[in-house]
Amino acid sequence: MSATADVPTGNTFDKYGSSNPVVKRLMTGFHSTLDELWAQAAPRSILDVGCGEGVLTAEWAERLGDGRIVGIDLDDPKLRADWERRSRPNLEFRVEEATSLSFAEGEFDMACAIEVLEHVPEPEATLAEMARVASGHLLVSVPREPLWRGLNVARGSYLRVLGNTPGHVNHWSKRAFVALLSRYGTVEEARSPFPWTMVLVRL
Q1: CATH number of the structural domain 21-202
Q2: What DSSP assignment string belongs to 104-138?
Q3: pTM, to two decimals
Q4: Of 79, 144, 120, nearest in space to 128 by CA
């Protein structure tokens, strides 16, 4: 994942801060599903892999109260500036490589990767490390394919690459993604907030 001058590492569009009414509606569904699965897992500590600017990480830090949360991502000056703005007593941001985490086995109740695995060259290695350092759950989401590409084409975006969003190197249907996650534990929930796939796995 690389950064541009204006866009944080791994992102090509600020969906969390968009004022577009269609994007806002889609993100409302995304957040609602994410909140439901988060509540079902009821974590006391969290590792947020590929946390980006830390928008969700900071939200979860508030919800955890005194519970520990660590957000990790690749080194990027823009991200570091955002991390400094979102500091909380129970929140730590670190530069880490997701395929070789520095944490102990079972150090967190839950490990999350929200809109991350489509960007990483080694998704299986990333998931294996997440499962190693978590003791309770994995919570992950990715764009649902081929729907995601089709929607991009329909709006005239990224036509030269058949609708593939820049930076997306992995592509899963809901069925394929659930099958992948089943290797690491029991899939408790597999949801489809349009146009994503979101999965909660009990380890």
Answers
A1: 3.40.50.150
A2: PTT-EEEEEEES-TTT-S-HHHHHHHHHHHEEEEE
A3: 0.85
A4: 120
